[in-house]
Amino acid sequence: MPKLYGETLSRLDLARMSGDARAFGGVRLMTLGDGLERGIRLLEFRAGSLRFTVAVDRAMDILELEWQGVPLHWSGPSGLRSASLHEYEGEGGFSWGRSFTGLLVTCGLDHTLGPAEVPASNYNYPGVKTIRHGLHGRVSTIPARLTGYGERWEGDRCILWAEGEIRQAATFGENLTLYRRIECDLGSQEIRLSDRVVNTGFLNTPHMFFYHVNLGAPLLAEGARYLAPITDTPWAAHEARYRDQGVGYQTIPAPQRHFSEQVWQHETKADPQGETHVALVNPRLGLGFMVTTRKDQLPCLYEWQHFQEGGYALGIEPSTHHVLGDTAARDRGEMIWLGPQEERRYDSRFTVLTDLGAAEARIRAIHPQPQDDYPQPSGHFRPLTGRPQKE
C-alpha cells in the first residue's frame, strides 16, 4: 500500500479522500512552449515525496528528480534543448555537450565515449567505408514514440508507468531500437528502468551502451561521499596530474574555480543477486541517491567528476564496455555484435536514500572500498567474455 504523508493508505482510503485519486499521484503528459525547449514533450511522475520528469523527445531520459522538493539531478548550462536543434557531427564530434543536461542521459546505441571513426564493412555497402561517431553516440537526442503511460492498480499497489520506442537507424547503417519502460510505485523512493535494445535490422551491428547518471547540488556538496564496492581502479584519465587538484575519487569538494574534468574507471563486485550498487550520500542533508544495475549487463563503471564552478556535477556511469573505447573493444574481441533481431536487456533502479547508514553498510558488506582517495590505477582491464564476434 502507498505510504503517503506519514500514513499507509489503501486504494479505498485514497478514493474516500478525493474525487480523483490522481490528486495524490499520477503521470501527466505536457509540452514545453518556450526557448530552446519549445515543443519538447515531458511526462511528469508524481509519486508522493518523489517527483521526476521524463523527456519523451530526448530518448525518454529522466530530466529532473526531486525528493520532498529537494532537487537531486544536475542541470547543465545548455538547458533542455530540442532535438531538432542538435548538430550531431559539429565541433569535431563534441557538440553533444550543447545538449547535455538532466539526471539520466543514455549513451549509445552503437557507440559510446569519445569521437571515433570505425569500419563500416558490416553494413555491406561499398559507398560507405567508415562511420564517424560523436561523443557518446546519437541516442540521447532522438525523440521517442510514446506507446503508453498512466497509473495501474494491482490490489492496493499503484504503479506509475510509461513506455516508448527510440529508433536509431539509417539506410546503409545501423537499425537499432531501444524499447524503454519506466516505473515507480506511488509512495515509493525508487524508479525502475527496463531497457531492451534490439537489432531490428538484418545486418550484424555493433552495440555499446551506458547510463550517464548526473547528480548536482544540493545533494552534491562539500563533504558528500561516493560509495561503491570497488575492488580495483584500472584507469584514471587524469593520472598524469593525479593529485594536483587535491580531489580524489571518494570525497566531494566545494565547486572549484579552475577545475579540470576527472574521470575514473572502477572495477566493482556484485552482491549475491548479481547486482552492483553505487551511491552518493550527503550526511548534512541526510539524503543520498543510489544506482543499482546488473553486473552481467553493465560490467564496467566510470565516475565522472566535473567540479567546476557553474557546472558542478558528479556522474555515476555503468557501462557495457571499458573506457578504452570503440576501436579497443573491437581489437580485444569485446564489442557486442547484435545479429538480426537479437537483443540486449538492461534492468536498473534509481533509489533516493534516507537511511544513509544502512546504504553504506549494504555496500561495504559486498566489498569494502579503498580508504585512500587516490587508489593507484592498475592498468588492468579484465576481459569481457561471452561476446561472440560476428563481423
UniProtKB/TrEMBL annotation:
Molecular function GO terms recorded: carbohydrate binding
Species lineage: Bacteria, Pseudomonadati, Pseudomonadota, Alphaproteobacteria, Rhodobacterales
Protein name listed in UniProt: DUF4432 family protein
Family annotation (Pfam families): DUF4432
Disordered: annotated span: 366-391
